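Hi X.,

You mentioned you wanted examples for the new student's onboarding notes, showing what a folding record looks like when two proteins sit in one file. Here is a clean example. The first protein comes first, with its sequence line followed by its structure tokens.
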Amino acid sequence: MSIHDGHRERLKERFRKEGLDNFDELYVLELLLFYCIPRVDTNPIAHKLLDHFGSLTRVLDAKAEELEKVEGVGKNVATFLSLITQVGRFYQVKRSQTGEILRSIDQCGNYLVPYFFGREQETVFLLCLDAKCKVICCKMVGEGSVNSANVPVRRVVEMALAANATTVVLAHNHPSGLAIPSADDIQTTHRIATALDAVEITLADHIVVSRDDYVSMVQSQYFKPQDISNAW
């Protein structure tokens, strides 16, 4: 057994006993690299990744093609590292789906936040509910701001109709800013609400997410649904 093998086993055993709470970023990254780089000292590669991106968070948020630009990082390593954040989002979304009856704005907000975990691009989701406030589906409408050509009002209406929804909640994220609706967000919300009302579907809220925080346009009085009684 080489000195590197001994280091690997010691670090793995420390994790099994203590968890990650007392680890620094370098050791967390080394531990991850053990599972995609066998029999090689991963410490220099971990250092290069942290020097290049500045933090473990930025390493895990980086696209695979950006990771591959770092010396020693091949396709296998880049794919593995870029998978970590997406697995975390997948886990959070699946866990949040255990309670699928959403009877309040706060329940909707808490349900939607995991969908944006680790997303560095503005993304729009539509949460569709039936008459009993049971989740029918939660689908990505598109990437880009809610008022961009990538997320047309017509598409939102078509998705809500296809799901046979009674009520919907729109949500999008502000990856690099506060969870405060912009003037464009507010204007587009009213346009979407009007279009949905024409087909007898209530837009109950538009939720803006930033990291683990969110702002409800209804609670913040940026938006008042035309018939909130249909929602809750």
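Then the second protein repeats the pattern, sequence line and then tokens:
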Amino acid sequence: MAETNIAQAVEAANCAASYDANVKFLLADKQVLARILKYAVREFKSTALEDIMASIGNDIEIGAKPVDTGLSNMGRITESNVEDNIPGEGKIFYDIRFSAYHRKSETKFLINVEAQRSSDPGKLGYHLENRIIFYLARMISAQKQTEFYHSDYDSLKRVRSIWICLDNSEDGDSIEEINLDRKNIFGTKENAYNMDLMRGIIIRVRTGLNRKESQNVLISMLEKLLSQMGAEEKKHALASEYGMIMTTELEGRIRTMCNLSQVIEAGGIEKGIEKGIEKGIERERLNAIERMIKAGATKEQIVLYGYTEEEMALAEKLVYKSVEKS
């Protein structure tokens, strides 16, 4: 019995991983993906949202297992490692990957969406633009023997890698593109072939509680979707301002995000998570210690699972108070 309670306590304390997973599942909702395509991918700009949703394949893959029972079977999502493994080149894992078919041009797009806590080279240890180029290159090379065979390079599908960066300043909301560019160095090239095969897109979402609403509809929607506002307020804003339908799956994810208290706040998402830990995970840790004490776990066992003596002392006080009340 003690072992079961200890295992449950350890799992309950893992809220930071839960936040990351829920961000991915929120972004992978077809309603959210459709808006990302419409307002960030130029080919879909003039397409109605309903048509974009219909154009998104049922092959949406997320590189993380769901953390909530009952929310993994969303119909439109496939759990997967979303792994790109080329012998001799190592593995990379995509946050979200799916295909979309642009009916007007009869073009298939392979899309990758990444939720990036920071785009600061000082925090990352590299420039994000280089990673985006690497992902684009792998999405191209991975098509051999899947989208085209032998030397049929004209059958390559267009790839778009979309990066949502979550730690920008109050005036840092922006969307920018990274793409191939043809320049004529000498002579005249007639009937130049369209080089728009791969494009990286960076969407910069702002932090800060007192920021003004973004003039960009996509950024404004993402900031509300990932904000710290309460679940009911958030659902109302997404439905009334952006026309989103509150499905059972979407409502569940929004509620989970709010319960985790893992939010984008002033000072960056890392500080938001720290504050969430202070408010939410701290309480969960104390609850976990309470359960272990009541289950008969020793102090040595509890400390072994990463809890501090200060947390032990506070949890013991809470246990004594609950006993006195009863």
